[in-house]
């Protein structure tokens, strides 16, 4: 059976670390452990790197985290996690454009290449960030993947824009402070799996830290599948318990044969086969 092995991780933003390098090592070690255990793709939550705030002097914590990550940590991550046959979505981190505009950006390492995805739609407490597209579809071992960050998975226009793309897997790094946020992301992600005929994986930030942006975080690890007959023997709504802190990981085996069988069926209702409509969101292919 053709399959992709997906490892989803929570990340405790309040985890003890005495230096930026020690903090980065928490991510590196968990990625390598997942890969050694057979995972093809590893995903960390939104704002994984905001735990670096503790090392930033002065009031402008977001700009400080952006500078620390992209100038000091990112080169080391690229060296440590470059792998010709694996992928990792390294959560999200503030990124400062040349005009000092801040983006909520997901750095991605895939098959030795470097990609990123910016958050398109922002929550009210992300007022210092600038949102906007495009939404990137990228290839991993011939499969089409997209990273859709937290609130973006709740936006129907994103799903409409992706219809007809042949997306195989949507990855949703998230950060939510209460159970209602966890529920919104989960319910909409499940709908995206049905609408697009693809797998959707979610991982959440957990833990507490002294931060105006992400002081309290809870979440879980979930994977959703299309509701078509080739998936009938598969657990189509697979949620972990809700975690408030700690490091947790779940492995999901994504049946690619079931995806292929579903896409050639013409005898059952399937919303992913409805003709695409323009949704005003730019899609680019990498």
Describe this protein's structure.
The chain has 286 residues and is α/β, with parallel strands linked by helices. The protein has helices at 20-36, 61-81, 156-162, 179-196, 256-264, and strands at 3-9, 11-12, 41-44, 87-90, 93-96, 102-110, 113-118, 135-140, 143-147, 169-174, 199-208, 216-217, 221-224, 237-239, 249-255, 283-285. Strands 2, 8, 9, 10, 11, 12, 13, 14 and 16 form a nine-stranded mixed beta sheet that branches. Strands 1, 3, 4, 5, 6, 7 and 15 form a seven-stranded mixed beta sheet that branches. The longest helix is centred in the first third of the chain and has 21 residues, at 61-81. It starts with a strand and ends with a strand. 44% of the residues are buried.
Unreliable spans: none
Topology as a string of helices (H) and strands (E): EEHEHEEEEEEHEHEEEEEHE
Tally the beta strands: 16
End-to-end separation in angstroms reads: 27 Å
The number of helical segments is 5
> Helix proportion of residues, in percent?
25-40%
- Beta-strand percent range: 25-35%
Q: Supply the helix-strand structural class.
A: alpha/beta
CA-based gyration radius: 18 Å
Largest sheet: number of strands, sense, barrel closure: 9 strands, mixed
Mean pLDDT: 94
- General shape: globular
């Amino acid at each position: 059976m053709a399959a992709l092995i997906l490892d989803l991780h929570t990340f405790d933003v309040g985890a003890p670390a005495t230096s930026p390098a020690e903090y980065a090592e928490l991510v590196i070690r968990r990625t390598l452990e997942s890969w050694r255990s057979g995972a093809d793709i590893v995903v960390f939550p939104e704002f994984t790197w905001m735990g670096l705030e503790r090392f930033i002097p002065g009031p402008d914590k977001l700009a400080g985290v952006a500078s620390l990550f992209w100038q000091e940590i990112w080169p080391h991550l690229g060296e440590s996690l470059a792998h010709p046959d694996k992928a990792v979505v390294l959560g999200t981190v503030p990124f400062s454009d040349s005009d000092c505009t801040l983006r909520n950006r997901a750095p991605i390492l895939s098959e030795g290449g470097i990609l990123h995805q910016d958050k398109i739609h922002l929550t009210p407490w992300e007022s210092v960030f600038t949102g906007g597209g495009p939404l990137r579809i990228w290839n991993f071992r011939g499969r089409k993947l997209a990273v859709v960050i937290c609130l973006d998975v709740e936006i129907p226009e994103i799903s409409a824009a992706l219809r007809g793309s042949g997306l195989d897997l949507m990855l949703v790094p998230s950060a939510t402070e209460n159970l209602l946020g966890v529920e919104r992301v989960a319910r909409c992600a499940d709908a995206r799996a049905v609408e697009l005929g693809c797998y959707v994986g979610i991982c959440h930030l957990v833990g507490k830290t002294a931060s105006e942006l992400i002081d309290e975080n809870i979440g879980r690890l979930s994977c959703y599948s299309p509701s078509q007959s080739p998936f009938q023997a598969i657990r189509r709504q697979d949620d972990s318990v809700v975690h408030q802190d700690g490091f947790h990981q779940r492995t999901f085996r994504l049946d690619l044969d079931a995806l292929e069988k579903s896409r050639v069926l013409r005898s059952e209702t399937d919303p992913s086969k409805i003709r695409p409509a323009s949704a005003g969101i730019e899609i680019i292919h990498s």
